[in-house]
Amino acid sequence: MSSSVLKAKLEGFIDILFIVMRERNRKHQNNPELFQTEQWKITIGLQKISGLYCFQSDRINFISWLYIFLFTSSFMTALGIRLVMEIGVNTEIVIENILAELFMIVIIFKLGISVLQRKSFKSICTKITEHWRMINNLEELKIMTKNMNNVHVIAKVYALWCFFGMEFFLAMPVGYPLLDYVIPMENRTRVMAFPCYVEYGLDPEKYYYPLMAQGFFGSLGYVAVFAAFDLSYMMLTSYVIGLFALAKHRISKVNAIMQAIEAHQLALAYVNELEDNYNKAWFVSLVINVTTIGGAYVVILVKNTPEEIFRYSAMLIGAFIHFYFIFLPGQKIINASEEVFDACYATNWYNLSNKSKYLLKVIMTRSLRASYLTGGKMFSLSMDTYCRMLKTSLSCVTLLKRILEL
What we know:
Elements: H1 3-28, H2 41-50, H3 58-86, H4 91-116, H5 118-134, H6 138-171, H7 208-251, H8 257-302, H9 306-346, H10 354-367, E1 374-375, E2 379-380, H11 383-405
Antiparallel strand pairs: 1-2
Helix pairs in contact: 2-7, 3-4, 3-7, 4-7, 4-8, 6-7, 7-8, 7-9, 8-9, 8-10, 8-11, 9-10, 9-11
C-alpha cells in the first residue's frame, strides 16, 4: 500500500474523529454556540451574575440566588418595619416605602419565575441554539443576525440605564451636602440621607456608611436580576422576529414554500413558549408599574426640596422607560407576524404549482390572526396597551392624592 493511500486514509480518519468529538462536545457543552455570539454577550453576562443562566452549574446559580435573596429579604424587612411605624404618622413615608417594597417584590418574582421555570427556559434556549446551528445559508444567517444586532444595541442602552439609574437613585442622597454650594437653602443646611426610609435598629448616624455599603452591594444583585430577566426576553423575542423575517424571505423565493412553512411554524411555536414562560411575570410587573407611576407622581407633588423632586422625577421617567421596553418587543412580534401575510400576497403566486398555492393559502390563513404575547392572559403586550396603561397609571394619581388629603 502506497504512502499516499495511507496518508489519505489517515486524513479521513482524523476528519471523522474531529466530527465525532465536535458532536460530543456540542451535546455536553455548557455554553451553546449561539450564546457565545457578540449579540448575546451582555445578556449572558448578567444572567451568569444573577444565577439566571440555565446552562450554568446549579451550585454557582444557587450562590447567586442566595446572595440576592438574603440582601433583598433583609432590605424588605427594614422597609416594612419603618412602613408599619409610620402608618398614621407620616403618609408620605408610607407611600415611598410601599413603592420600594413593590420594586423588591418584582425582583423576587422575576427571580422566582426564573428558578421555578428553569427547565422550561433551558428547553427553549436549547431549541433555538439547535436551529441556529442548522442555518447554513449565508443570506438567511444575515437575516437572523440583523434582528439580533438591532436588539443588541437596545440591550446595551437598557443595561446601562438599569445600573446607572439605580445607583444614581441610591447615591444622590449621599451628595446632598454638596448641593448647598449650588442651591443653598434658607436657615438650614442639607445633610446626608438614606435613599429610602428603613429601620435596622441601629444608630443611623453612627452606622451610616456600613448601611449605605450594604445597600449599594445588594443593589448590584437586584439590578442584575431585573436587567437579565428583561434582556433575555428581548433577545429571545428578537430571535422569533428573525424567524418571521426568515419565513418572509423564503416565501419570496418560489421554490422554498415548504421551508417557509417550517420557519413560520417554528416562530409560532416559540411565541407560545415565550408566552407560557413570561406572561405571569409581566402581569405582576405591569400592575406594579402602574401603581409605581401613580405613587411616584404623588410623592413629587408633596416633596418640597428640588433634589428630592428631581430624584423621584427620574424614578417616574424610569418606570415609563421600563414600560416601553416591555411592550416594544411584543409589538414587534405582532408586526412581524402580520407582515408574513403581506409577503404571501406580494409573491408571484400565479407562477406556483397548485400544491404550492395551497401551502401558501395555509400560511396566509394563519397570518390573518396576529401572534402576540400577553401579561397574565389579561392584556396583549402592544403599544396600544402601553398607551392605555399610561392613562390608567395617571388616573391612580387622583386616588392617591385623596388619600394624602385625609
